[in-house]
Amino acid sequence: MMTALSFEATQADFPLPTLGPLLLSIAEDCKRGRGFGVLRGLPVQRWTRIQSLIAYWGFSLYWGRLQHQNEKAHLIGHVKEVVDPTNAKSTTRLYMTRKAQPWHVDASDLVSLLFLKTAKSGGLSGWASSSTIYNEILRTRPDLIPVLAGTWYMDRKKEVPPGKKPYFVLPILNWHEGHLTISWNDTYYQLPPKLYPGEVPPLTPQQEEAIQVWRDTASRPDISINMWLQPGDVQLLQNHNIVHNRSEFEDHEHVDDKRHLLRLWLSPEDARPLPEHFSDLWGGVTPGARGGVGFKTGPEGGVFPLEAEVGQQKL
Fold first, then answer.
1. Pick from 14, 97, 155, 284: most CB atoms within 10 A?
2. Cβ neighbours for 281, distance < 8 A, ≥ 6 positions apart
3. Is residue 3 part of a domain?
4. In degrees rounded to 5, what are phi and psi of residue 261?
């Protein structure tokens, strides 16, 4: 684990006179423009792991405050297959497997990925504008808009903050102070009725249909894009109006060659306002201090693991 990187550091501690303005511009475009950006060409193939982590942490100082990505308080996550999908449980987070990840958002204002190594085949990154998906459903199936804005139970995938239930309620469509914030996590809606049948009602036929219509609309080639990202590429996405996915992949045999990405969850201090009910998942709605999972400690108690982990076992 790396713990020396300071949570209280600022851009002045990591000056980037040429690259810094570009990082700020990308973040601004994500927050108030197209919602995503890609930076290409970081020399990760000649950097050590620690150098890559430090450089990526430095980027975060230009984008927002880091938030915990799991109950172990990881502030930089490792997206890597560490669980065989044939043995994975329903509560396993899919980023730890090679299985396809359906359309979803992460529990943060911004999410970033740094590609260290790519898969042997597959593993394409897909993005779609959830605002465009909403507009298309409003045009073709307006009857589903009240359904999407209704009550949806979501599973916490066994990462339950103290005093919370293993599920929570969060509408897909959220209007607040002039913003439409869209929260979409495809597979998280089906689990609570199965795992907690005495507490969570089953999905209604209208909800089942809304899920399928959303999936089909998001996957249309005129709405979504797919990219094959390379080692050294950095992507930054805004979760409130962009959904993303990943195709299934075949990995390399040798452990040193396996697909490996680093991930940041970020909360900018100038992020949009969110309705109070986001607090049940995000631990609050104050920009710069919201998002993530776990909430066992403040972000200043986070760690920077050098490698992917499952439980206490490093892989």
1. 155
2. 107, 154, 168, 170, 293
3. no
4. -125, 150
Q: What is the DSSP string of 3-24?
A: --S-TT--GGGS--TTHHHHHH
Residue 98 belongs to what domain range? 11-307
SS3 (DSSP) at 194: helix
Enter the tokens of residue 113.
Answer: 């990925």
pLDDT (tens, 9 = 90+) of the chain, 315 residues, equals: 444 567 778 999 999 999 999 999 999 999 999 999 999 999 999 999 999 999 999 999 999 999 999 888 899 999 988 766 555 454 555 556 778 899 999 999 999 999 999 989 888 999 999 999 999 999 999 999 999 999 999 998 888 888 889 999 999 999 999 999 999 998 889 999 999 999 999 999 999 999 999 999 999 999 999 999 999 999 999 999 999 999 998 888 898 899 999 999 999 999 999 999 999 889 899 999 999 985 554 555 788 888 887 543 333
Within a domain: 313: no
Supply the pTM of this predicted model: 0.91
Q: Give the count of domains, the chain.
A: 1
